[in-house]
Structure formats: C-alpha cells, structure tokens
Specification:
7 strands, 3 domains, Double Stranded RNA Binding Domain, hpI Integrase, Chain A, four-stranded antiparallel β-sheet, alpha+beta, about 45% helix, about 10% strand, DNA polymerase, domain 1
C-alpha cells in the first residue's frame, strides 16, 4: 500500500463511506459532496479519533500536515486531543476596559439598583479607563498602576481608594477567567507609592441649630430638588434611597425599603410624619411605579445636583451630612436610646446573636423620634 493512497480526483468520486489515506488518516464521506477528515491515534494505550476539519474545505495536503502535527505531539508526550480542547477554551486577551466591564457585570447583582446609578464604575471611568483602558489586562503590573494612581494618591485619596479596590477586584475576576494576571500588582503599587499623607475628611454636615433655617428655605422652593431634600431631612434616609424612591414603596404612613435598596441588605421601614406625607403630596404624580423625585430627564436626581443646590444657597454641608445633623440633634436634645437613634439612620444594631433575639425594628420609638425632629426643623416654617 502506498504511503498516501488518496488523490483529489479519487476523493471527489467517492460516495458515502470511510477511505484510508495512510498513517492513520481517513476521509469519512457523508455524501458525494461532503465529508470530514480524521486521524486515528493511540493515546495512553487507547485508540482515539481526532477530527481534522471538513472536506473539501480542508485539502488532502492540509489534512496530512494536521495529522503529522498530531503524531509529533503524541511522540513528544502531548495529548493532541486534550491540547486542542485547551486551546478552544483558552480565554481571549482582554483590555483593561473589557475586564472592568466583565467584573462589573459579574458583581452587578450585589450592587444597589444593579449599579445603574454608576457609582461603582465612576472612579474607574474617570481615573483608570482613560489612561490604560486599551492596555491588555495581562500587561498590568505595579508600574502601570503607578502611572494611573500617582497623580491622585495624595490629592484625591477617597477616589484613589475606591478605584484601587475595584482594580484589585478586576484582576481577581480576570484570574478566574484563566488569564495570566499579576494578582499582587495593587499591593506592590501601594508599596511603591507609600502612605497617603492626606487626612480623611468627614462629609460636611449642617450644625443642627441651623437645620430649621435650612428647612425653612427649602419650604420656600417648589421644585423637585428642594422637595427631595425636605424628604431627606424628615426621613434621614440615605441619598440614594431618596433619589430612587417610588410611590409604590409608600403604604399609608410607612415607607418600605426592600433589602436591595438598603446599604445593610435588610428591609427597612421608615415611619412618615405628617410633614413627610405633605412633601409626598406636593410631589404626587399619576405614575405610582415611577420615581417620586425625578430629574428633568425622568431619571433619578444625582447626588451632585442636590449638593450643587445646597452650595448655591450658601450651605457648605452635603446632603449625606444631614444624617449627621439629625444624629447630633438626637444625641443632645432627646432622651432616645442608642438603638432607636441608630435604627432611625438605618444602621445595623448589635451583632448577629443580639439581632437574633431583638426581632423588633423599633418602629413606634422611631416614629416618636421622627415626630420630635419634624417639629424641631419645621418650627420656624411659615406656609399657607
């Protein structure tokens, strides 16, 4: 038998069946017009068949070369079938931007509102992606990261911290995909940049003595931002909870926040005072499933819009700082217990064992505290 038995013309004439070419190479025809190539190999003492492509797309010469390559691999102790499977599932190279997007999608379910507010991505889209977004993630080392973080390491420590943590998560995600990344890149970058000299600053809050004047100013405004800030003050909720609030979360005089809407991941009931219900009445619309305080475009208000309003009115405090305003007032001006004050802010109270025995969310006590707070901040307001 010749070393190679098949010719192009013979292969073309053959009907359905198996035709040997030699050295384990076979042409398997399913019809007169179509077929496939395969090579028979002995791998770990067992006969295996390995496909080499469709005929006539793969020529006889190409099929012979592929068969020879498989035999060489086998001779060198490599299983060609297993090796091809590895290549098939080998992850493609990703850029930093692509890896970040993949990491975000993988974590999206863990984020509030599925991350639609953009807060998880924000430090990355501002500081990381513009500089190294097109860099292959496998090429990222401590020196590449230093070029990104050095300009903001001391000047913008909070942004640097958030971006750094998210880059570290992205590298871990890429490693889980099978990519060859340096999981210690962030740690080594921190060693190169050293300690940050910037002191952590707390979010500016409003002295509680000025809260009535601020609330009175809000009552003189009729647009959505002012209404949202009034509701924020009266409920001392987190800004994201207010910005994404919908009317179908309101049941009589209680605002129900589902676990996915809270920072603690637990359901939170917020008692609504008469003043808070008045704000809801002023914000009323014909779409109970839509936002209570929509932006002009119909989406949620942004933190920046609320903060900008306060700045324009001459207040240095930030919206989130109003929670500290309430907490300081409650500490100095009321006899409320610690659990009630912390519960009013939606904080987790006690450890896991204590929470197992304390099933009440102290709604009645919190309602009384909120009523006192409402009277305090609304005491100097004069409305028709």
């Amino acid at each position: 038998m010749k070393r190679h038995a098949l010719t192009f013309m013979e292969a073309k004439k053959f009907g359905p069946g198996k035709y040997a070419d030699g050295e384990g190479l076979w042409l398997v025809k399913s019809t007169l017009e179509a077929g496939k190539w395969m090579v028979r190999l002995v791998v770990s003492g067992k006969r295996r068949e390995m496909g080499l492509g469709r005929w006539p797309d793969v020529s006889i010469a190409e099929a012979r070369e592929r068969a020879a390559t498989a035999r060489r691999q086998l001779r060198d102790g490599v299983d060609p079938i297993a090796e091809r499977a590895k290549e098939k599932f080998k992850p493609k190279r990703l850029t930093v931007a692509e890896a970040i997007e993949g990491c975000f999608k993988a974590r999206q379910a863990e984020l509030k509102n599925d991350g639609h507010a953009g807060r998880w991505m924000s430090p990355l889209t501002v500081h990381v992606i513009p500089k190294i977004g097109l860099t292959p993630i496998e090429d990222v080392d401590q020196h590449v990261l230093c070029s990104v973080f050095e300009p903001i390491w001391h000047e913008k420590p909070d942004a640097a911290r958030k971006a750094m943590n998210r880059v570290n998560l992205t590298l871990k995600h890429a490693a889980a995909l099978g990519l060859d990344v340096d999981l210690q890149a962030v740690m080594k970058m921190r060693a190169l940049l050293g300690k940050r000299r910037h002191e952590v600053k707390h979010i500016p809050s409003l002295p509680y003595q000025k809260a009535p004047a601020f609330y009175r100013m809000l009552c003189e405004k009729v647009f959505v931002t002012a209404l949202a800030l009034r509701f924020l003050m009266l409920t001392v909720a987190r800004t994201s909870e207010v910005r994404f609030a919908t009317f179908d979360e309101i049941d009589n005089d209680v605002w129900y926040l589902a676990p996915k809407r809270t920072k603690t991941g637990r359901e939170h009931r917020v008692p609504l005072t008469k003043e808070a219900l008045l704000v809801l009445e002023l914000a009323q619309n014909d779409h109970p499933d839509r936002l209570i305080f929509p932006s002009p475009t119909g989406g949620p208000l942004s933190d920046a819009a609320m903060a900008a309003f306060m700045k324009r009115e001459g207040f240095s405090a930030r919206p989130h700082g109003l929670r500290a305003t309430f907490r300081t007032w409650a500490e100095n001006e009321t006899n409320a217990d610690w659990e009630t004050k912390e519960g009013a802010l939606g904080h987790t109270i006690g450890n896991q064992v204590e929470r197992a025995y304390q099933r009440s969310d102290l709604l009645t006590k919190r309602r009384e505290l909120f009523s006192q707070w409402s009277v305090f901040i609304d005491s100097s307001s004069k409305r028709q």
